[in-house]
Structures are given as C-alpha cells and as structure tokens.
Amino acid sequence: VYQDTIFAAHCASCHSGTNRKGSFDVDALTDAARQSALRRIFSDDPKLVMPPLDKPRLTFEEKSQLMRGSP
After folding, report:
1. Rounded to whole angstroms, how far apart are CA atoms 42 and 13?
2. Angle between the 31-41 and 2-11 helix axes, to the nearest 10 degrees?
3. Of 1, 12, 66, 71, which is the most exposed, with the fewest CB atoms less than 10 Å away?
4. Nearest to 66, CA basis, from 12, 9, 14, 16
5. Residue 8 in 3-state DSSP?
6. pTM of the model
7. Considering only CA atoms, which of 42, 59, 41, 58 is closest in space to residue 50?
8. How far apart, in Å, are the Cα atoms of 33 and each of 4, 9, 54, 63?
9. pLDDT band of 1, cuts 50, 70, 90
10. C-alpha–C-alpha distance, residues 17 and 63, integer Å
11. Each residue of 40-63: pLDDT tens digit?
12. Is the previous residue joined to 51 through a cis bond, with omega within 30 degrees of 0?
C-alpha cells in the first residue's frame, strides 16, 4: 500500500519496534490503523495531530497522495 511508504518516512522513528509510542505500529499496519493515522494526520487539533507539531510535517503533495490513496 502506497500510504505505508509515507507512514514509514514520517512515523517509524516513534512508531516502530519495541519502544514505539502509543498503539500505532508501522511494522504491523491494519486498515483500521491506517484510517486512525489518516484522521490524526489531517486533524486540526494540536493535541491529536500527527506528526507532532515539533516534527517535520507532511508536504502538500504527500497529503494529496494519501487522499488519493496512490502515488
């Protein structure tokens, strides 16, 4: 799934391996996990948005690709 490439690039540093934060795991993505990640990526709530505001943000093109579901 193309989304997984973006998730790996922006999420793996905090959401991969045994020390991952929260329940999101880029190493074991389910459809439900992808949907949850998309809700947080597109959230306007600074307490929920991912990546956190102090981390590199997804580009407009990456967000567009996530919305289309393809490269």
Report:
1. 19
2. 60
3. 71
4. 9
5. helix
6. 0.83
7. 41
8. 11, 16, 22, 17
9. low
10. 25
11. 999 999 999 999 999 999 999 999
12. yes
